[in-house]
Design goal:
single chain, 353 residues, alpha+beta, 33% helix, globular
Length: 353
């Protein structure tokens, strides 16, 4: 079988891969995107979009499609301590939640419209320097390779780049019918053995995400079953690890984007933004033949915001302390408004757009 050659091959069809493939193809590069799943498919995620995503959607030409799909316009986020104390903070007007099943397909199909070749149901099995990519559907070569295949990146594993995982917690996610009184909002609840993130995603659905250590999963699932009147055999999707040391994002003509390069604390809800933005950065560096700029640009993308991520991680690893912080913040809601603004506000720079 003949080996087909491309300018760039992208592994992974999530937000990072879809954005990268769309812009590479729009730049006239012969672009291949390899995705092991068949879309549409569900993905473990909180489904919330940072408003900083909108300039990227505008550039990709998908803003109208995103807004036309079922979604929730989020009004506020409520922080709930483990004793039931609550603090509510308003969210920006353009904060929404949309299921990854819908969002990722919009991005993937847009990449195809712009000329990228999309191969779904294709598993990467081996990679040789050059780049020669062996898959379940044949072999391909590319001058540049982008790993956009998540925290458990097959590309990183096959090339010996994966750091040892930090198996401290597990994430669970499911959808259920939204309670009539929930509204289009987000709730972040600290529990004695972990935390829950709950968000309306439109069409009457509620996204329920749970995070706990493996030994505490049964307890936190029992809480969710009771709280949301779920059947005992409710199907849950799972993901682990939730923490991992970052991988240098540039290795010659190999670039890592999204969670493949750096995993951020899911509590902050910034994962989709970082995936999109790093996918755009990768595409721009490849199209301009300035791949060596990617490491510095990638560092600038995260700089100044990771302290919020570290603070969030400390909070969820110590739910009793986080609940105490909610108690303290009740008479000082401006503190939570400040921290929330740091998460959902615009990044330091959108120069790469």
């Amino acid at each position: 079988m003949a080996v087909i050659a491309y300018d760039v091959a992208i592994v992974g069809g999530g937000p990072a891969g879809g954005a990268c493939a769309a812009l590479c193809a729009a730049s006239g590069l012969r672009t291949l995107l390899l995705e092991r799943s068949i879309f549409p498919r569900d993905k473990v995620c909180g489904d919330c979009l940072n408003p900083a995503c909108w300039p990227i959607f505008d550039r990709l030409g998908v803003t109208k499609k995103v807004l036309a799909a079922p979604h929730a316009r989020l009004g506020h986020v409520e922080f709930i301590g483990n004793r039931g104390r609550r603090v509510q903070v308003a969210l920006p007007a353009r904060a929404i939640a949309i299921s990854r099943r819908l969002l990722d397909e919009i991005l993937l199909r847009r990449a195809g419209e712009l000329g990228a070749e999309i191969r779904e149901g294709t598993t990467v099995t081996a990679i040789a320097q050059g780049w020669k990519i062996e898959t379940s559907e044949g072999a391909f070569t590319a001058r540049a390779l982008v790993a956009a295949d998540g925290r458990n990146s097959s590309v990183a594993r096959l090339l010996g780049l994966t750091p040892a995982p930090i198996r401290d917690r597990v994430g669970l996610q499911t959808y259920t019918t939204a309670p009539a009184d929930f509204g289009e909002n987000v709730a972040l609840q600290f529990l004695p053995r972990g935390y829950a993130g709950v968000a309306s995603v439109g069409a009457g659905l509620l996204n329920v995400c749970l995070v706990a250590r493996p030994a505490d999963l049964d307890e936190i699932k029992a809480w969710a079953v009771s709280r949301f009147t779920l059947p005992a055999d409710q199907a849950w999707r799972t993901i682990t690890p939730l923490a991992r040391r970052p991988i240098p994002p540039e290795h010659g003509n190999l670039l890592l984007a999204g969670d493949a390069a750096r995993v951020v604390e899911p509590f902050t809800g910034e994962g989709i933004y970082y995936a999109l933005a790093s996918g755009v950065l990768a595409a721009d560096c490849i199209a301009s033949e300035k791949i060596s700029d990617y490491t510095a640009s990638h560092a600038r993308l995260y700089r100044g915001r990771l302290w919020v991520n570290r603070l969030a991680k400390a909070a969820v690893l110590s739910p009793h302390l986080a609940s105490a912080a909610v108690e303290i913040a009740r008479p000082l809601p401006a503190l939570l408004r400040f921290l929330t603004a740091k998460v959902v506000g615009p990044p330091q720079s959108l120069d790469f757009l």
